[in-house]
Amino acid sequence: MKIDTSYIERCIATLDKALTLLKKANPESIDYDMYRSACIKEFEIILEQSGKLLRKSLKPFFHSANAVDQLVFKEVFRHAVLRNIINPEACERWLQYRDNRNSTAHDYGINFAEETLILLPQFMADATDLTKAIVNLNTE
């Protein structure tokens, strides 16, 4: 089964562009606020899409699709390590990203946003690597 990664690839490109524009914006401007919000939203979308795509990628390794569907987000990434889709270090970062995302449900303040912005360069690299790993699984 071929898994379509075009949406997540587009989201990663959008995040990259928003982060580039954020770095150029005056922190006191409305543009800065707008680009920061775009970065946070793309972070959330990519995180969710990563879990969904990885879940689809894991289905051939389980006795039933329903068994994979029962896994919570962090278990999906731990199983990806067991299947050599990602390495343990990347998994730990994904778990950190998830913990950060869970904070967004409770704290949309500036401090949270600034903490998330620090994660974004490594997050984009990890999201790109995960997307490539999923594409590679499709070609095996």
Write up this protein.
With 140 residues, this protein is mainly α. The protein is built from 6 helices and no strands. Helix 1 packs antiparallel against helix 2. It is elongated. The mean pLDDT is 91.
User: What's the mean pLDDT score?
Assistant: 91
- The CATH topology turns out to be Four Helix Bundle (Hemerythrin (Met), subunit A)
Q: What is the element string, with H for helices and E for strands?
A: HHHHHH
Overall geometry: elongated
Into which percentage range does the β-strand content fall? under 5%
CATH class identity: Mainly Alpha
Task: Please provide a brief summary of the model.
The protein is an all-alpha fold and 140 residues long.
Keywords:
single chain; 140 residues; mainly alpha; Four Helix Bundle (Hemerythrin (Met), subunit A); 6 helices; 79% helix; elongated
Layout: helices, strands, pairs:
Elements: H1 6-24, H2 30-58, H3 65-69, H4 73-82, H5 88-104, H6 110-139
Helix pairs in contact: 1-2, 1-6, 2-4, 2-6, 4-5, 5-6
